Every structure is written in structure tokens, then in C-alpha cells.
Amino acid sequence: MKEDYYEVLGISKSASAAEIKKAYRKKALQYHPDKNPGDSEAEEMFKKSAEAYEVLSDPDKKARYDQFGHRAFEGGGGFGGGGMNMDDIFSQFGDIFGGFGGGGFSGFGGGGGQRRTKGSNLRIRVTLSLEEVANGVEKKVKVRRKVQAEGVTYKTCSTCGGRGQVTKIQNTILGRMQTAAVCSACGGSGQILDSKPNDADAQGLKVTEETVSINIPAGVEDGMQLKVPNKGNDAPGNGVPGDLLVAIETQEHSTLKREGDNLHYDLYVSISEAVLGTSKEIDAVGGKVRIKLEPGIQSGKILRLRGKGITSLNGYGSGDLLVHVNVWTPKELNKEQREFFEKMNGNDNFEPRPEKSDKSFFEKVKDMFS
Ligand SMILES: [Zn+2]
């Protein structure tokens, strides 16, 4: 069982963005590997705090986590969140500690102070049908991403000597302080371009088209974003590729309306079908479904087909398909029909006599959401 992100950072669910940041800063300082060499428990806590902060500091991810918990970040596509590596964690620090090397650490990851640069992220939009949303789908998309050109070589940056950062001595109210800044010549990677083929850009990169397969879990919603790690642009030198960020867009279905994991379908039947009973084919995800209507079915009745809705993103089963029965009253009648209905006027069987099971619309809606 994964620990609650709020508990990891020791904050309440109502914590403000500033409080979240403050709490993470405290944990990161407490568990930093430089302060706890060889302590695997501290390293574990360090990683957990970073992961919690990564989610809770992002309004999008936080909202998803608040709604779905850890399950929001599971599934094929791998929502951002779980499984951060040390590179990811340290790249977060510029934001937290206000500058590379801030906070008084000797270096990152206990190593030589060099940080692997990350390539830029790419963004694409994927449009899904209701069927694809309902069951999940693997999408193959063509992505134009920059990769290191064949034959390109990099050499150690002479400005920083390969360390990726330059140090400066500053006089402050606390005395002389040594601060580190990202090397502007190499962008922090410690490497610069040595030689490149003609068709590569100034960083030795070249655009190629690649087919990327994206596993989209069932139950995603319009506006969500999935992350495919390492399918963004390559970084020059020994950097790591950026990510491919996939924005989900969902198409409206012609007859089925989605509401959370439930689907709604409006079924229209004639007066005679309602009186005599009938069986009808209705739309469902994954094909048509035949349902039976008992003789005497009332307009407004809702039939619930369990499990015929959307497979839940949080992994707990599926929603239902709710069929709303609407009895269609004819607007025009021929002479014979008119005579029949006139004859039935006042007939005992035609008198409304609602029973408890024929709940009003409002009671049914109340039931559905309770
Ligand atoms: Zn450099």
C-alpha cells in the first residue's frame, strides 16, 4: 500500500501551495543523500517526498490525486508521478531552493555536481471515441522528435571543465558565500558539440519521424494528460530525452451520454409498445444490446444495465448503462384511432394509478446518486 502523499509531506489536505513547498523543502533537507550518506531509509524518504511534491505541486495532478488517489497515476500510459529517479528529483530543486546548488549542498546526488540535462518535452493531442475511452486503447502515433544525429560527437565543456556549473564568490550579509550557477556555455550538461554531420542542428540534433505506441487506460476524461517518458526530444551530449505529453480529447457519441463512469441512453417507444411490451435494440459501447420491456412499462422508467458503462480509471469495476424509457405520444390520429382513444377516455384501465414502484423522476434521480 502506497503512503498518502499528504502524510509523506506531513501536511493537511487543505495545505496551500506555499505550505506544500515549505513542507517539501524541509523533508528534502532532512533526507538529502549528502546529509545521510549510505542511509537507504533516508534515500527512500527523500524519493517519496520528491514524488509527493511532484504531484501535489502541480494543480492538474493534485486534482487527479485528490479524486482518484494513487490509482490516478497507474495504468499503461504512466501518468506523471510514480517512479522518479534522482535526475528528476534534482532537476526539481532549482524551483525549490532558488538556484542550482542552493541550500548549501556540496553537489547533487553526492556526486561531482554535474547534472544530466533533459531534452525538451513534446506535446500531442489524441482524440478518442467513447468506445476507446470505455475499454482503454493502444494508440500508435507518428511523432516528429529531435534525436542525436548519427556521427555527432561531443566533448567536455572547457568553460566549466565538464562540471556543468561555475562557482562564484559573493559577499552577503552572512559573509562570503560560494554559490554555484549553471554553466551558460554548455547549459549544465558539461559537454559541448565537437563535430556534427551537415544535416544536424547546432546541438547535433536532427528531426526524425518515429511511431510511438501509447497505452491509454480505460476511463480517461477529456482534458487529462498522459506522459510517455523519454519520447520527447533528445538532449545533446549525455543528457536524457524529454517526455511526450499526450493531451486527451474525447468525442461525443451520437446516442450515448457519459456522466462519470455511467452512460445514459434515451429510448423512445410507441404507446402500443409500452402497453403491450416489446424488446428493443439499444446502443452500448462495444455493440448493440437487446433489452426487454415488460407490458405496461411507464414513461420515465430507468432500466439499469450493470457494468455496461465505462471501465473505471481507478480500477474499481465499471459504471452502468442507464436506459431512460420515453413513451412517444402520437400527435396525429386517423379517424379509427381517434375513435378508439375517445372510447378509452374514462375507461378504468386508462386511469393513472401510480404505485410505489413508479417513482417520480425526482425520486429516481435521488436514488441514483445516493
Ligand atoms: Zn560548461
TrEMBL record:
<dbReference type="InterPro" id="IPR001305">
    <property type="entry name" value="HSP_DnaJ_Cys-rich_dom"/>
</dbReference>
<dbReference type="InterPro" id="IPR008971">
    <property type="entry name" value="HSP40/DnaJ_pept-bd"/>
</dbReference>
<feature type="binding site">
    <location>
        <position position="183"/>
    </location>
    <ligand>
        <name>Zn(2+)</name>
    </ligand>
</feature>
<dbReference type="InterPro" id="IPR002939">
    <property type="entry name" value="DnaJ_C"/>
</dbReference>
<comment type="function">
    <text>Participates actively in the response to hyperosmotic and heat shock by preventing the aggregation of stress-denatured proteins and by disaggregating proteins, also in an autonomous, DnaK-independent fashion. Unfolded proteins bind initially to DnaJ; upon interaction with the DnaJ-bound protein, DnaK hydrolyzes its bound ATP, resulting in the formation of a stable complex. GrpE releases ADP from DnaK; ATP binding to DnaK triggers the release of the substrate protein, thus completing the reaction cycle.</text>
</comment>
<keyword id="KW-0143">Chaperone</keyword>
<dbReference type="InterPro" id="IPR036410">
    <property type="entry name" value="HSP_DnaJ_Cys-rich_dom_sf"/>
</dbReference>
<keyword id="KW-0346">Stress response</keyword>
<keyword id="KW-0863">Zinc-finger</keyword>
<feature type="binding site">
    <location>
        <position position="160"/>
    </location>
    <ligand>
        <name>Zn(2+)</name>
    </ligand>
</feature>
<feature type="compositionally biased region" description="Basic and acidic residues">
    <location>
        <begin position="350"/>
        <end position="370"/>
    </location>
</feature>
<feature type="binding site">
    <location>
        <position position="186"/>
    </location>
    <ligand>
        <name>Zn(2+)</name>
    </ligand>
</feature>
<feature type="binding site">
    <location>
        <position position="157"/>
    </location>
    <ligand>
        <name>Zn(2+)</name>
    </ligand>
</feature>
<keyword id="KW-0479">Metal-binding</keyword>
<feature type="domain" description="J">
    <location>
        <begin position="4"/>
        <end position="69"/>
    </location>
</feature>
<dbReference type="InterPro" id="IPR012724">
    <property type="entry name" value="DnaJ"/>
</dbReference>
<keyword id="KW-0235">DNA replication</keyword>
<protein>
    <recommendedName>
        <fullName>Chaperone protein DnaJ</fullName>
    </recommendedName>
</protein>
<keyword id="KW-0862">Zinc</keyword>
<dbReference type="Pfam" id="PF01556">
    <property type="entry name" value="DnaJ_C"/>
</dbReference>
<keyword id="KW-0963">Cytoplasm</keyword>
<feature type="region of interest" description="Disordered">
    <location>
        <begin position="344"/>
        <end position="370"/>
    </location>
</feature>
<dbReference type="Pfam" id="PF00684">
    <property type="entry name" value="DnaJ_CXXCXGXG"/>
</dbReference>
<comment type="subunit">
    <text>Homodimer.</text>
</comment>
<keyword id="KW-0677">Repeat</keyword>
<dbReference type="Pfam" id="PF00226">
    <property type="entry name" value="DnaJ"/>
</dbReference>
<dbReference type="InterPro" id="IPR001623">
    <property type="entry name" value="DnaJ_domain"/>
</dbReference>
<comment type="similarity">
    <text>Belongs to the DnaJ family.</text>
</comment>
<dbReference type="InterPro" id="IPR036869">
    <property type="entry name" value="J_dom_sf"/>
</dbReference>
